[in-house]
Specification:
The complex is a heterodimer of chains A (340) and B (319). Chain A has 340 residues and is α+β, with helices and mostly antiparallel strands. In chain A, 33% of the residues lie in helices and 26% in strands. Chain A contains twelve helices and 14 strands. In chain A, the strands form four sheets. A six-stranded mixed beta sheet of chain A has the order 10-12-7-13-11-14. In chain A, strands 3-6-4-5 form a four-stranded mixed beta sheet, covered by helices on one side. In chain A, a hairpin with a 6-residue loop joins strand 1 and strand 2 (37-40). In chain A, helix 3 (71-86) packs parallel to helix 4. Chain A is globular. By secondary structure, chain B is an alpha+beta fold. Chain B is built from twelve helices and 13 strands. Chain B has a six-stranded mixed beta sheet with strand order 9-11-6-12-10-13. In chain B, strands 2-5-3-4 form a four-stranded mixed beta sheet, covered by helices on one side. A two-stranded antiparallel ribbon of chain B has the order 7-8. The N and C termini of chain B lie far apart (45 Å). The chains are: A alpha+beta (340), B alpha+beta (319). At the A-B interface, strand 2, strand 3, strand 4, strand 5 and strand 6 of A face strand 1, strand 2, helix 3, strand 3 and strand 4 of B.
Chain lengths: 340, 319
């Protein structure tokens, strides 16, 4: 006889454990467990705008599996979504996750969830539901993919509209704290970190202290994606636009918020590129173009703001003035780099 | 269509997050569900047919959100893959768009990740995320279920999205044979199914939205029959002290399930644990309301009732 049923006794414990990690939340009508989760919308004057974002964490889980460090990846997927939702002017309300894997043990799943719960709490939102799928037919043993769905909301009048961007607006760069969640395939190639599960050679290399970094590569590479919610909240209704610097680097992401007829001129050299990027570049003999096309290079978010707000931001939050918006002919690239 | 008008894209530049105007509600509650298609994907990949699993993922979410009394507003998808062809991605998205349009909601955003380190070439995982809403007073609250209530079963269209790991093992699909051998197994026509195995197995998950929405008033609970079968899912809406008795002779098990049981020599208890056995949704209503629903819902069958006692769900006769 063939059997194929799922161990639901185990599943229920996981759900119970998730439920206790998440705790209570006043707006949650039905949380982790039922077919769908329910969330009450209050505190809005008029019908709000709902903002939604879906994100994965790329191939960063590969490193997490190798080092058996999962909590940080949980923080990554939430903060990535928090930052995406921020770009539309919304604040996070609730979050759902998907963990697709093969043979990922319960401890690892709980660590992932703990990271998500912690990051949700920091963002004043709540993990309201999720799905865990064990699929040995798709994932290799120990591998996993992690997907996050974030819902946020804002008053209709508070929606960020990049069309208000003007020539001479200023580009304010907010520092990243590492690679965030992008460029990991290239980084691993550059650092010659293989994919053999449990490779002692790779683990030893990753956990060796690197004086140039002041820490191990493992710590530098697994540092969780930074959330810009706290820094940007006081200014959210005043910015022209926000570009979250993820896959494709500054050019690809800043380009998405620059209207036709304008271009953003990014002045390289106005901020210090953190040592992890130089380390990767040297190890893999990568060109500047490859680096800027794959990594955030130390800038995790760019706020496009009027000159007055730029001065205000420079005084109040850690950031750099990284360039300007200028008029250009239609058809030109929306982002240009100059070296200073 | 109303939903589509609510999508805000005034800027014309590709946004990082999608925006949706929640208009027309007085005191809205948001319902959210995340689902994946599971191992059915493996069959779709082997067969090179993607549109159906696009429909699957949306309808699975639509049914989940429906169980709380909400109607779908918008949907987001995630496709994690390696070297998945553009044609395949487009077929997936076509399926999702078609199902969204059927459900009166809109595909508002998504993410496509190409990750050769995680996925083998041509493999992918598909995750769907659906947001719905309803007025706070219209939330379906399963705590109102009481002894004497009637269980109404709605027919499924095949396996929906559960039980595929077992099916693959029984028919030895994608378990080390060549692609050509797998195709031969999948493309074989069976008289008792009236179609090929792949047609029977890849039939999309049915949406119950259109049938149930006009009848929502008075529905006490709904159980979407997915992984864990009738007992596993019905138990989620039956509170302690009550017992749902499901008469397993009250509907005819569709040929596909009988065929699977015989081919795999799977006993009936295991069949009921793994598959929906022909019932894709169970609606719990008061006895006064039952006849109206049985008359209005196509293919609806009275499959049992709620009694005081335990266990939460009792299959009778026990399979």
């Amino acid at each position: 006889m063939v059997t194929g049923s799922i161990d639901f006794a185990k599943y229920d414990t996981l759900v119970d454990q998730i439920r206790s990690a998440v705790g209570e939340h006043p707006s949650v009508v039905a949380g982790v467990g039922p077919f769908s989760s329910l969330f009450r919308l209050n505190e809005f004057k008029k019908p709000p705008l709902i903002s939604a974002s879906v994100d994965g964490v790329g191939t960063k889980p590969r490193l997490a599996s190798l080092l058996r460090r999962y909590r940080e990846i949980g923080v990554d997927v939430v903060n990535h979504s928090v930052n995406d939702v921020l770009t539309s002017g919304a604040h996070p309300l609730f979050f759902l996750d998907y963990i697709g894997s093969s043979g990922l043990d319960q401890q690892a799943k709980l660590e992932l969830i703990q990271g998500m719960v912690d990051a949700c709490r920091d963002a004043k939102c709540v993990l309201i539901g999720g799905e865990t799928a064990d699929m040995p037919q798709i994932y290799q043993e120990g591998d996993f993919d992690l997907v996050g769905f974030m819902i946020g909301a804002c008053e209709e009048d508070d929606q960020i509209d990049p069309m208000r961007t003007r020539p001479r607006d200023v580009l304010i760069g907010l520092p990243s704290n590492g690679l965030h969640t992008n460029g990991y395939s290239l980084a691993r190639e550059a650092l010659s970190i293989g994919l053999e599960p449990g490779s002692l050679k790779d683990i030893e290399f990753l956990e060796r202290h690197q004086p140039e970094l002041g820490e191990t590569l493992a710590d530098a590479l697994l540092r969780p994606h930074r959330s810009y919610l706290a820094d940007l909240t006081p200014f959210l209704t005043k910015v022209r636009s926000l570009a979250h610097i993820t896959g494709g680097g500054i050019a690809a992401n800043l380009g998405r918020v620059i209207p036709a007829g304008l271009r953003a001129v990014v002045e390289r050299g106005t901020w210090q590129v953190p040592p992890i990027f130089s380390f990767i570049q040297r190890s893999g003999q990568l060109s500047d173009d490859e680096m800027f096309g794959n990594f955030n290079m130390g800038i995790g978010m760019i706020a496009v703001v009027d000159p007055k707000l730029a001065t205000d931001l420079m005084a109040k939050i850690p950031c750099f003035r990284v360039g300007l918006v200028e008029r250009t002919l239609n058809g030109h690239d929306p982002v240009a780099f100059i070296d200073i | 269509m109303t939903a589509i008008l609510n999508v805000l894209d005034k800027s014309g530049v590709g946004p990082l997050a999608s925006l949706f105007a929640l208009a027309g509600y007085k005191d809205p509650v948001i319902a959210a569900s995340v689902d994946s298609v599971g191992t059915k994907l493996r069959l779709a990949i082997l067969a090179g047919k993607y549109r159906g699993v696009g429909i699957d993922i949306v309808n699975h979410c639509v049914n989940d959100v429906l169980t709380s009394g909400a109607r779908p507003l918008f949907f987001l998808d995630y496709i994690g893959s390696s070297k998945l062809s553009d044609t395949a991605k487009l077929e997936l998205i076509e399926g999702m768009v078609e199902a969204c349009s059927e459900a009166g909601c809109v595909l508002i955003g998504g993410e496509t990740a190409d990750m050769p380190d995680i996925y083998a070439a041509g493999d992918f995982d598909l995750v769907g995320f659906l947001i719905g809403a309803c007025e706070r007073g219209q939330v379906i609250d399963a705590s109102r279920v009481a002894a004497g209530d009637v269980l109404i079963g709605l027919p499924s269209d095949g396996l929906h999205t559960n039980g595929y790991t077992l099916v693959r093992r029984i028919f030895r699909i994608g378990v080390g044979g060549t692609a050509a051998a797998d195709r031969r197994i999948l493309d074989r026509h069976y008289g008792e199914l009236g179609e090929t195995l792949v047609e029977a197995l890849l039939r999309p998950h049915r949406s119950y939205l259109a049938d149930i929405v006009p009848m929502l008033l008075g529905v006490k609970a709904m159980a979407h029959i997915t992984g864990g079968g009738i007992a596993g899912n019905l138990a989620r809406v039956i509170r302690e002290g009550l017992s749902a008795r499901v008469d397993t002779t009250s509907w005819e098990t569709p040929p596909l399930f009988q065929f699977i049981a015989r081919q795999g020599r799977v006993d009936a208890a295991e069949m009921f644990r793994v598959f929906n056995m022909g019932i894709g949704m169970i609606v719990v209503v008061s006895p006064e309301k039952a006849d109206e629903l049985l008359g209005a819902l196509p293919g609806a069958v009275r499959v049992g009732s709620v009694e005081a006692g335990e266990p939460r769900v009792r299959l009778d006769p026990e399979p």
